[in-house]
């Protein structure tokens, strides 16, 4: 920041570009320069809006220390005591049991190519950027259905569109009534992207999903990659100039409005990308824009307190739902129970869940790409009073294979009151399917390989090979999926190593390589994602960030990277 003020912003950008040219970046020169170009103009504008000392900005956006500025240390007050709003609710109206298809993080790469490198020094591999004119197809090249992460390699490959179609065709054969899509349609790359391309690709995926799932009510939330530049979501309170998020919300409304988002939700969606909808008699959905809690949304360094008034809107909306005797589902992209969110927003969210827990029957998120959950705990004014479980944030495994395991989707099953009864998780073993394709095409040159891929697309039967991997209740021996049951499960994980090892394999979407995981007393180690020898405090991070349970655990074991 001192260099910015002394030499000017262009000087700082030139220095960053010099790092790219000197090959001092993890990425190759072209990718490194592309990432700088993606953010440089908006960051110039953002930095000149700051109202805090340089050190506080550094601490807030990079986590390089504990920030103290009152701008960042904001608090959210709820206006009634816990459960007070629900003393008059004796009976909730009955609905019919129903099921929901949950799709998380498709990250479709329309540039995915078969027979190219799945390890590269770019943001995204397995694309036509790594394609060579002459190819002899081998086991070291990308297969037709995607590539899971491999131990020791940064296999950053997003989802080929054929695998999205396969997932949708597989899911269409199952029984469900609604669809929740929790964002991140766009692949993990900045190269050759623009705002218009983001909107085009979301439009294409929306069309594909609508064609595959006709006559289904679909509800959606916005992911951190679903804008350009990604991650950066200013609010109306900020002096953001031409970098307002309005263009995104208006563009998405043209795609989803009146179809995936009801007409009556237009005002709040155009304001901040969030909305509420009645999805079934007695059941109401709140779709949150959790990009407003995201640590990589640097606009929050300018004005972090309850962006767009979303938390106050949620608090008041839940109170109205209680008055109408409605049960509630919450969806969003980034789970507030993880350290992906700023702690002030996460704590405020804990307060809201604590207050309204009697009507909240489910919270469903994505973003993590992993299969995980966190338990919410009551926020007590009296520090001597024991917290109780008030909610569960369910993070579904992703469809994309980027940095993780097999493509996945879920069927959420609800009872006649909208309560969560069970979760069935489905996966596709793309390693096995890719091996079959390789056996037919090994040694093919590019022309023969492209012809084989075209033939595969004309007659793709991969949808038949999706498997139900497990039922949540059966796998963990749960009598129900209540917050109390999940809190009890955390305690059992700390005592039952084999049960926790199953959870840990599920966490990585049952890719074959985490079979060497070892768990003991709530702590696991594996060389699959975390570096060899690193202890992963699994049962600690199963308590939601922002809760007293998480804070107590972190004090005992040190900083938790969740």
TrEMBL record:
Disulfide bonds: 20-32, 120-125, 126-157, 293-341, 519-524
Calcineurin-like phosphoesterase domain location: 100-370
UniProt-listed GO biological process terms: ceramide biosynthetic process; sphingomyelin catabolic process
Name under which the protein is recorded: Sphingomyelin phosphodiesterase
EC numbers for this chain: 3.1.4.12
Record-listed Zn(2+) 2 binding positions: 184, 224, 333, 367
Gene3D superfamilies per record: 3.60.21.10
Family under the similarity heading: Belongs to the acid sphingomyelinase family.
Cofactor(s) required for function per UniProt: Zn(2+)
Signal peptide: none
Organism taxonomic ancestry: Eukaryota, Metazoa, Ecdysozoa, Arthropoda, Chelicerata
Single Gene Ontology MF annotation: hydrolase activity, acting on glycosyl bonds
Binding site for Zn(2+) 1: 105, 107, 184, 369
The organism's place on the tree of life at top rank: Eukaryota
Keyword Metal-binding tagged: yes
Bound cofactor: record note: Binds 2 Zn(2+) ions per subunit.
Organism: Varroa destructor
Reaction equation(s) it catalyzes: a sphingomyelin + H2O = phosphocholine + an N-acylsphing-4-enine + H(+)
Enzyme class, spelled out: hydrolase
Keywords: Disulfide bond, Glycoprotein, Glycosidase, Hydrolase, Metal-binding, Zinc
Pfam family, one: Metallophos
Entry's Gene Ontology cellular component terms: extracellular space; lysosome; membrane
